[in-house]
């Protein structure tokens, strides 16, 4: 790609989430502004995408819950360079007499906000009015909850699955092969249907391969036994789904991405908010020439560049590929024009009909988070781990609600992610209830009052709180296209990938940019690979699309 008049390559990055901001900083760090002219276009006024932190009346919500842990050392080092690890006890560490391996010379969380905390991960499953450890532990509580008959059925079902393997052509068979049909029907079938709105038999096994490849009954049992051993294990020996310690920004994940955005600007980059990309224009040679974005006032601006990195949803990206580039000054305001009699944008360099069909058939799952500030929880802390609060609260980061009698999918307890997320951490508990739904469905369209009342009623039935009298405050967030789904036209993605790669100077990164259920670290790694290609001149993009598909990126390393 030819360089501009300044001698620098111009790069436009669509999206200010983890993938987009990682790409921007990878281009600009270490004096990269001398080589690259970088512009980030973010459709909202917030940074971090689904990894943002929502602020409400002095309390902070983590949208989705984000453990900062990766099998990729590049990502771990990257995070540590942005926010150094704590070198002194945090507020709850001091209060509870809790000890970590603190970073020598690291910052004190009580004195500065720019610090990464070390957190202990505790999660449980709520099933049949019982709270079970997750990952499963060989505890009396488990056998009491299941009962002798069900325990035996689950055991023999698992043994049968070891010798009678099903073809892994759907997610149901994937789970049954690893856990047996009995455990599958108890803990996976209903919960997966709740999350995706489809039964597992309708979902590609690829989803299981990306999310729980290393998790099985054997791995859970091995982990339970190893925990009894005195020798400390390296994290590379543990499945990602079983990791018990992780890092966490003091003020939530959005804090880190806000810092990165500031570094991008200080490093010579440009970040434009309220910039909703609506069109990508092409050159005659088949490459991308420019993007057109609409600002909050409705004005359309065209921005030319040499390279383009997109983390916008694939469906929207394909529908944005419009007419050929007409030339003209960069960064110019343009008229809408180019519409047919029906008002639709004309496509002089039309996207093939089959590609449009595949893109528009890609499904997504949206969700709603309801935050409730409560006086206390009814749940008793029956673990041997001291917990913060008055009275002490349970130590859970997440509670997975796998009981089919409840619509809520997960309950977060923000106090345990970071005490600094909660304004009055000693006397209130800040919880988040995650509801999986579709944009425009009945639950999505509920009023704030209706959604809050629904959440309060479910927490009361679960015996987590006494009732509405315990609730001090609430807040609801809608999250669009939170989870790329693995059904409908998903199995035709390879054809779509080939088409997008044909543009040469267009790189698709991140969860929605690749329509892949990436973790935050996978999204970052895809951006790192894209930047490496731009810097080296590598033309094929196999390495960019291979993140979270090859063994080294999977749950088991």
From TrEMBL:
GO cellular component labels: cytosol
InterPro entries from the UniProt entry: FAD/NAD-bd_sf
Protein origin, superkingdom: Bacteria
GO molecular function: flavin adenine dinucleotide binding; UDP-galactopyranose mutase activity
Pfam family, one: NAD_binding_8
NCBIfam families hit by this protein: PRK07208.1-5 (NF005549)
Protein name: FAD dependent oxidoreductase
């Amino acid at each position: 790609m030819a360089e501009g008049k300044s001698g620098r390559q111009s790069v436009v990055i669509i999206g200010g989430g983890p993938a987009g901001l990682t790409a921007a900083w990878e281009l600009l760090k270490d004096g990269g502004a001398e080589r690259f002219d970088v512009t980030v276009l973010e459709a909202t006024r917030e940074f971090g995408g689904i990894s943002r932190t929502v602020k409400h009346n002095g309390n902070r919500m983590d949208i989705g819950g984000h453990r900062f842990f990766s099998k990729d050392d590049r990502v771990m080092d990257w995070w540590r360079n942005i926010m150094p690890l704590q070198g002194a006890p945090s507020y709850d560490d001091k209060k509870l007499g809790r000890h970590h391996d603190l970073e020598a010379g690291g910052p004190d969380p009580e004195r500065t906000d720019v610090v990464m905390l070390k957190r202990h991960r505790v999660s449980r499953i709520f099933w049949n009015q019982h709270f079970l450890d997750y990952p499963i532990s060989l505890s009396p509580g488990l056998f009491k909850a299941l009962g002798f008959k069900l325990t035996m059925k689950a055991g023999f079902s698992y043994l049968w699955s070891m010798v009678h393997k099903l073809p892994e052509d759907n997610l149901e068979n994937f789970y049954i092969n690893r856990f047996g049909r009995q455990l599958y029907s108890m803990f996976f079938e209903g919960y997966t249907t709740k999350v995706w709105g489809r039964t597992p038999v309708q979902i590609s096994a690829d989803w299981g391969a990306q999310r729980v490849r290393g998790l099985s009954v054997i791995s859970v049992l091995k982990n339970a036994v190893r925990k009894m051993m005195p020798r400390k294990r390296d994290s590379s020996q543990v499945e990602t789904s079983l990791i018990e310690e992780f890092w966490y920004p003091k003020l939530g994940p959005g804090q880190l991405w806000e810092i990165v955005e500031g570094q991008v600007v200080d490093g010579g980059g440009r970040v434009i908010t309220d910039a909703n990309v609506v069109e990508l224009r092409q050159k005659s040679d088949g490459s991308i020439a420019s993007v057109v974005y609409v600002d909050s006032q409705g004005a359309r601006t065209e921005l030319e560049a040499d390279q383009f990195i997109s983390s916008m949803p694939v469906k929207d990206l394909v529908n944005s590929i419009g007419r050929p580039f007409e030339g003209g000054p960069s960064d110019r305001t343009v008229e809408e024009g180019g519409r047919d009699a029906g008002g639709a944008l004309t496509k002089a360099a039309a996207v093939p009909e089959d590609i449009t069909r595949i893109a528009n058939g890609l499904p997504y799952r949206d969700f709603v988070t309801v935050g409730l500030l409560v006086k206390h929880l009814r749940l008793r802390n029956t673990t041997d781990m001291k917990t913060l609060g008055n009275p002490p609260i349970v130590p859970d980061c997440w509670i997975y609600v796998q009981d089919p009698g409840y619509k809520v999918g997960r309950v977060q307890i923000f106090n345990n992610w970071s005490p600094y997320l909660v304004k009055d951490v000693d006397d209130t508990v800040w919880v988040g209830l995650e509801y999986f739904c579709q944009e425009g469905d009945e639950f999505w369209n509920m009023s704030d009052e209706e959604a809050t009342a629904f959440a309060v009623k479910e927490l009361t039935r679960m015996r987590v709180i006494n009732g509405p009298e315990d609730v001090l405050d609430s807040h609801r967030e809608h999250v669009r296209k939170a989870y790329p789904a693995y059904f409908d036209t998903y199995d035709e993605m390879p054809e779509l990938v080939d088409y997008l790669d044909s543009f040469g100077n267009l790189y698709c990164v991140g969860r929605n940019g690749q329509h892949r259920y990436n973790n935050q670290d996978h999204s970052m790694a895809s951006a790192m690979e894209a930047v490496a290609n731009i810097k080296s001149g590598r033309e094929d993009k196999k390495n960019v699309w291979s993140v979270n598909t090859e063994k080294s990126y999977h749950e088991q390393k």
